[in-house]
Amino acid sequence: MRLNKFLSQAGIASRRESDRLIKNAMVTINGVLEINPAYQVKSEDEVFFDDQRIKIESKTRIIAFNKPAGYITTMKDPHQRKTVIDLIYTDERLFPIGRLDKDTTGLLLLTNDGQLANKLMHPRNQIPRIYKLQIDKIFQSWEIKRMASKVYIGQKEWGKAEVVDQKKIKGRVTLHLRLFHGKKREVRRIIFRMKRKLFNLERVKYGPIELGEIPLGKWRDLSFKELKSLKSL
Questions:
Q1: Which residues are catalytic?
Q2: Are 10 and 50 in contact (CB under 8 A)?
Q3: In sequence order, what are the beta bridge partners of 151?
């Protein structure tokens, strides 16, 4: 297997990003620096990325985690900020499928299967994510149509979101939005462009997997049925 594919399946980065990391001297094999992405990794090779040994797990594991606010979605942070990995106690190396920003709570999937993670994150596969929001005002029908078409969200990017439902309760509006791409802070940028005040943002569903009753800051392993449903997407 090519080294860039090996890194991708181990969950380090996409294959293209792995090329860059390898060429930037981030990988050693059997103690020797390797900068060729096409190097053929053998079963007996010891591959290290950033001084940490990596390998491809033969058995897929995915957990569903209820991320609290104040934690960033990364394996480690050079600025010593709190990461989601700080709350997940396991000897197995798991990495996030996509991201939730620091202030967003809710469902985050983590896995040991890099190939599956890349599949679930890739925009072309259109995996739906549903977010629960609290905002200050109901969306009118023309606004709902606009969001479902496209909204300019800055930095030469356009966002899209489908309103699943919305309800006004005690001066605030609770709504569910369905997104398919997951651009950086896309929900927050859409809400800002639509001139709404956002009070709370929580992801409640990723593909067929629901947050359910997982307590904040806790996690559970997906069932065999759930794993099968993700792999079949």
A1: 101
A2: no
A3: 159
Question: How far is CA 216 from its chain centroid?
Answer: 17
- Which pTM does this prediction carry? 0.79
The Cα–Cα gap between 7 and 55 comes to 8
CA 8, CA 11: separation in Å to the nearest integer? 5
Amino acid at 51: D
Render pLDDT for 47-74 as a digit per residue (tens, 0 to 9): 999 888 888 766 888 999 999 999 999 8
Rounded distance, CA 73 to CA 198, Å?
21
What SS3 class is residue 19? helix
Taken in order of first residue, the domains within the chain and their CATH numbers are: 3-54 (3.10.290.10), 62-123+211-231 (3.30.70.580), 128-206 (3.30.70.1560)
Nearest one of 127, 105, 130, 131 to 116, comparing CA atoms: 127
Read off the tokens for 206. Answer: 């990723």
Rounded Cα gap, residues 5 and 14, in angstroms: 8
Walking along the chain (233 residues) 10 residues at a time, the average pLDDT comes out as 87 86 93 94 90 81 95 84 89 87 96 85 89 97 97 95 95 96 92 97 97 96 91 81
Tell me the HSE value of 215 on the side-chain side, using a 13 A CA sphere.
2
**Alpha helix (H) ranges present in the chain?**
3-9, 15-23, 114-121, 141-149, 186-193, 224-231
CA 91 to each of CA 86, 193, 194, 203: distance values in angstroms, whole numbers, following the listed order = 12, 43, 44, 26
